[in-house]
Specification:
Length: about 280
């Protein structure tokens, strides 16, 4: 078979989880090389339920993330790892292992982007710890990550430490308008959300929206105040909100998305016809 021709007209590529297939490193590398002007990638790797606990077949490795980091034309990346409903209990345990896996390449990937949403692949706590002191995110407008720390079973002090560190990192993101750190599983969901001021007389906002309560420490709020004050048009300061949501209708991390009212796109919605 003859090699495919380069397609410079293509600027957006969507690899949906509904394909029910795993893309190998070589397949993904060959595909991305076809689009020299690629600006947006939506990649939703699928993990076969038979191998959901086998780390040797992780559908999104650091080497594959490095492929994305090496594409200098790309400005928006959305990666969402789904889990089969039939293996929900196993996938819940599997997601917890993400927290202990270093994903420094994810932090590096974000440096060249305007929008990045990485869900259930790299933990936010690891992301912020891997950021280098000299890094500045000159282009980044929105950042959305998941974290296994965002759970009622985790230590509240560690959660606050991560949210404080997120605020410190955000001071080095001069164009940041939205940051969302979220997590969900059956019956549970939460998001920590920062929104820059939309007008001079409107405050910037940080919101804790969750099925359980968390007391945000004063040092967390103080860490975010310089981020809010950075917008010259903002004169109304920083507003802090705590909102409760009902987890009764949440059966998976994907189904939690509309309940959390995320500002950014983290996965392409599934049309009913696609599941027919």
């Amino acid at each position: 078979m003859e090699p495919w021709t380069l397609m410079p007209a293509v600027t957006s590529l969507i690899l949906r989880r509904q394909t029910r297939r795993q893309w190998s490193y070589r397949e993904l590398e060959g595909l991305l090389k076809l689009f020299p002007r690629l600006a947006e990638l939506v990649y939703e790797p699928w993990r076969d339920p038979i191998f959901v606990l086998d780390e040797s077949v992780d559908p999104l490795t650091e080497s594959e993330l490095q492929l994305l980091a090496d594409i200098r034309t790309i400005s928006k990346v959305i990666c969402f790892k789904d889990y089969p409903a039939s293996r929900r209990e196993d996938s819940r345990r599997d997601r917890r292992t993400i927290r202990t896996t270093s994903r420094s390449v994810t932090a590096y990937l974000s440096l060249n982007l305007e929008h990045m949403a990485i869900s259930s692949i790299a933990d936010a706590s690891i992301f912020f710890e891997e950021c280098k002191p000299e890094w500045t995110w000159e282009r980044l407008i929105s950042l959305t990550l998941t974290s296994a720390l965002l759970s009622p079973d985790e230590n509240a002090s560690e959660v606050n430490d991560m949210l404080r560190l997120a605020g410190i990192m955000a001071t080095r993101m001069p164009k940041l308008e939205t940051m969302e750190l979220w997590n969900a599983e059956e019956g549970l969901a939460c998001v920590f959300q920062y929104r820059a001021a939309r007008a001079w007389d409107c405050p910037a906002k940080i919101t804790w929206r969750s099925t359980w309560s968390l007391q945000l420490r004063d040092d967390v709020i103080e860490a975010w105040k310089p981020v809010a004050a950075r917008k010259d048009a903002c004169r109304a300061g920083l507003e802090v909100r705590v909102e409760e949501i009902d987890g009764t209708g949440i059966r998976s991390h994907g189904e939690a998305i509309p309940h959390l009212r995320l500002e950014t796109e983290v996965a392409r919605p599934v049309c009913p016809e696609a599941n027919a």
